Amino acid sequence: MDFGAFLFLAFLEGLVQAAVLTLTAIGLSLVFGVMRVVNIAHGQFFMLGAVVAWWVTTNITSPVLGFFVALLIAPIAVGLVALASERFILRPLKYDAVATIIATIGMLYIIQELTLLSFGPDARPVEPPFYFDVQFPWFGYSGYKLFVIAVAALLLLALKFGARHSQIGLVMRATQFDSDTAQAFGVSVGKVYAQVFTLGAMLAAIGAVLVVPIQQAQYLMGFDALILSFTAVIVGGLGSIRGTVLAAILIGLSDGILSVFFAPTLSKIVAALFIAVVLIFKPEGLLAGARR
């Protein structure tokens, strides 16, 4: 293949990374933007989604049926874990900034060690729901990876529509803007926080289910997801959904391109340098004012 074909391949690989990262990072950005909580355990929700997907697909013989059942069950299971964590850990702490950081660090290690005990230390493969290649002029490309990009794009559009046109979206935006005023107008802020925390975890789980046929399920996979999600949130602007999406796409594309042309480790170094440059020249983030 010539250079243009390699570049197009790298672009596609970057879009796959960006699609999964965007879903995961939006969940983290939502939690911080609405609740002002830094959820250090967010990567473990991602990991749990992958592990549940492996368990579901292992117990269902049909790869197609197993995958789509996992795409339904994993977010629900992870969402219930997140809802319980919010109710019995974060809410009693009154969402105090320092206390919640410490608490979510504890949650990180508890979830990780429980997964290690039940799931084991080995990486486990998940079979893709289908195998076919989409033929481009230069090469054939995995149809499943294109499916991942399409599903992530549809979910982003659904989230955007829900945030602008649904009652729960309006309530979340009002709470994000001023929780005290929202509560004075009868909004149950505690209920909104529970919904946001649950939604953030479910988005991470969906991203994990989508990527686990490409990457194997493993009990330590939450750390990379957490680091890259924090990178996207910081670069995009704390609490800015549009900024997080933009940063996730940029990080994902750079990861794909650098991984194809150089080495995967180089992409992580570039992501760290990207944070440093943004914090130096635009410490508020790329789109800090865009909170919707």
C-alpha Rg (nearest Å): 19 Å
Number of domains: 1
Q: Give the strand content.
A: under 5%
Largest sheet: 2 strands, antiparallel
Distance from N terminus to C terminus (CA atoms, Å) equals: 42 Å
| Largest sheet strand order | 1-2
SSE inventory with pairings:
Blueprint: H1 3-35, H2 42-58, H3 63-90, H4 97-119, E1 133-135, E2 140-142, H5 143-165, H6 167-177, H7 179-184, H8 189-211, H9 222-236, H10 241-261, H11 264-281
Antiparallel strand pairs: 1-2
Helix pairs in contact: 1-5, 1-8, 1-9, 1-10, 2-3, 2-4, 2-8, 2-9, 3-8, 5-6, 6-8, 9-10, 9-11, 10-11
Short description:
With 292 residues, the protein is an all-alpha fold. It has eleven helices and two strands, in the order H-H-H-H-E-E-H-H-H-H-H-H-H. The protein has one domain (3-222).
Give a written overview of the molecule.
The chain is mainly alpha-helical and about 290 residues long. It has one domain. It is about 75% helix and about 0% strand. The protein has eleven helices and two strands. Strands 1-2 form a two-stranded antiparallel ribbon. A hairpin with a 4-residue loop joins strand 1 and strand 2. Helix 1 (about 5-35) runs antiparallel to helix 8 (about 190-210) and helix 1 packs antiparallel against helix 10.
